[in-house]
Write a structure and sequence with these properties.
This is C-type lectin domain-containing protein. This protein has about 220 residues and is α+β, with helices and mostly antiparallel strands. It has 2 domains: about 120 residues, Mannose-Binding Protein A, subunit A (Mannose-Binding Protein A, Chain A), CATH 3.10.100; about 70 residues, Irregular (Invariant Chain, Chain I). About 20% of the residues lie in helices and about 25% in strands. The protein has 4 helices and 10 strands. The longest helix is centred in the N-terminal third of the chain and has 11 residues.
Amino acid sequence: MTFLGVFLVFCGVLTLTRAVPINSTLTKRMGGLCDYNHLQCTIFPGMFCPQCDADGNFLPQQCSGPTRYCWCVDMITGEEIPNTKTPPGVRPTNCAKNIRCPHGWISFGYRCFLFIDTPKTWPEAEFYCQFEEANLASVHSYEENRFIQTLTRGDTHTFPETWIGGSDAIQLDLWMWSDGSKFYYENWYNDDHNEKEEHCLKMNYHCNVYNTYTH
C-alpha cells in the first residue's frame, strides 16, 4: 500500500492558457519548448523561428521578420493569445498588460498563483491544480520563491509546509516541474534519513524549498 505525506497546496498557472503537462518530452529534452522549436527552424528552412528567453521558454511577444506581424503568446506552449496580433505599421500589443489572473489568484511576473489551505497528497494536489487549468507551482528564482512563500503565510504568521510542483518520481534524481518549465533553481534542504523515499517537493521546511517523500 502507498502512503503519501499530506500538506497544503500551491497552484501556479500561466495566464490565459493551460500549462504544459508533466510528461512533456520536449521540455524535458530541451529544457523549454521554445528551444526545441528554435532548433527545428534552423534545420527546416521556412519555419517560423520563435524568440526564446534564457530558460528556453517563449518571449511573451513574438514577431515575424518577413511579415512584420507581432502577437502575444503563452510563454510555455507558444500558443498565440487571441486578438493580440497587429499588422505592420501598428503599435504592437503590450503583452504584459494582457495578464489577467482569475478571481482570487495573485500575479507575479507573467504567472498567476493560488494558495489552497486544504490538506492533500502530492498527486491529489496536482490533480486539483489541473482541474483549475493549472499545475502545482514551479519556482525559478529567489524572488519568486520569497513571493510564493509569503503567500503561504496564514493569519498566525506561520509558514505551513506546502506542496509545489517538483518531483523525481518518473526517474530518480531527475527533478522536473509538473508545468514542464526548466528545472534549474536550487534552494534545497536534503534529508539524508529519507533519501531513498524523497520524490516530491514541499515548501517551508525551515522556511526553504525542501524535497520530501513518497512512501
